[in-house]
Design brief:
Elements: H1 2-13, H2 18-32, H3 46-61, H4 66-83
Helix pairs in contact: 1-2, 1-3, 1-4, 2-3, 2-4
Length: 87
């Protein structure tokens, strides 16, 4: 669950960054079984691309860990930020 914890830290530390947006989209797609544009992962730097791949691996291994719920919460927060009108 190391990748999931790392992703949560990234998302919480800067929820409006491009990296947070991409990782959040991935998490939401994994959780909801929605389609996801894998090409967006190529916008990540190599380290975060590897993190995204590790998230997919961890998600597949165990879909019911508490850490995943915390990451999902952070991803939903970022998604909600995108929907709010700019001030």
């Amino acid at each position: 669950m190391l990748a999931i914890k790392k992703a949560r830290k990234i998302i919480k530390s800067d929820p409006e960054s491009k990296t947070s947006s991409i990782l959040s989209g991935l998490v939401l797609a994994l959780e909801t079984n929605a389609s996801y544009q894998l090409g967006s992962l190529y916008e990540l730097d190599y380290k975060n691309y590897e993190l995204a791949v590790d998230i997919i691996k961890e998600w597949r291994l165990d879909r019911h860990y508490a850490s995943k719920v915390k990451l999902l919460s952070a991803a939903i927060y970022v998604d909600d930020l995108k929907e709010q009108p700019a001030e």
